[in-house]
């Protein structure tokens, strides 16, 4: 989570500075695409503040109202960020671009637009590099899409997508400003604005999908389940692991429920001792597992049939 904060702070600093200069340059050059980019930077700034707020809330200790803690606050605010990108970023840009295509305005002096766009590309590119570097440290052996899909920390891939969309959007606007002035085609400014809006909508849909999945409750990976099963079944008192249920409360907290069949000749004291050993073994191997619930059951297995008794 600390690494994710580093990416957020770098993106936040870049967007605050860039948003102001984009609005100034857009007013001077009479460019709707530059104004749209300014809106984009403002939305990104708000999003980063919301992510930091979500991180702070997710650290609240468990209480009577939330016995498993407040970790899912982060997933909720990540989902809100995706909605803001869709509505404020994508929606406003598409509407503004559409209006500018219908009623193109005379182009102003593009000098400041070029200056701001180039500076913005440098700042956003630096922020993207930091976000990618931090994300790559945590997912070295996975493809980018697989890492994003498997990641349980929405702040890491949200900043990555935001910065990536920002760099692409800036390049689109830079091309529109250049060709629009070179060939006197003012409607290119509106086309660039709509393109930026559609890009933000696409990013928001991807982020909403991933954030929703985390908010609804994702469990540990099948290979991790298999390793935990093998670990538990090494205990001499365990006959078989019947079920493993899990959910991420936050990127750093997992709730694990295990249904275990113990040998029939054990008494209550033996089972309690085995449960304590199981908890200790799992926590030693998997630091993220915060809560472990072990449900003992007995079962009789006949040919082609399993009977479970609670």
From TrEMBL:
Molecular function as annotated in GO: monoatomic cation transmembrane transporter activity
Q: Which domain of life is it from?
A: Bacteria
Question: Which Gene3D superfamilies does the record match to this protein?
Answer: Cation efflux protein transmembrane domain, Cation efflux protein, cytoplasmic domain
Q: Which InterPro entries match?
A: Cation_efflux (IPR002524), Cation_efflux_CTD (IPR027470), Cation_efflux_CTD_sf (IPR036837), Cation_efflux_TM (IPR058533), Cation_efflux_TMD_sf (IPR027469), SLC30A9 (IPR040177)
Tell me the GO BP annotations in alphabetical order: zinc ion transport
Record keywords: Membrane, Transmembrane, Transmembrane helix, Transport
- Mark the transmembrane ranges: 7-28, 34-53, 74-94, 114-135, 156-179, 185-208
Keyword check for tRNA-binding: no
Q: Which Pfam families match?
A: Cation_efflux, ZT_dimer
Q: How does it sit in the membrane?
A: Multi-pass membrane protein
All residue ranges annotated as the Cation efflux protein transmembrane domain in the record? 10-216
Q: Which GO cellular component terms, listed alphabetically, does the Swiss-Prot or TrEMBL entry include?
A: membrane
Question: Where found, per UniProt?
Answer: Membrane
- Where is it mainly found? membrane
What NCBIfam families is this protein classified in? CDF
What is the name of the protein in this document? Cation diffusion facilitator family transporter
What organism is this sequence from?
A: Flavisolibacter ginsengisoli DSM 18119
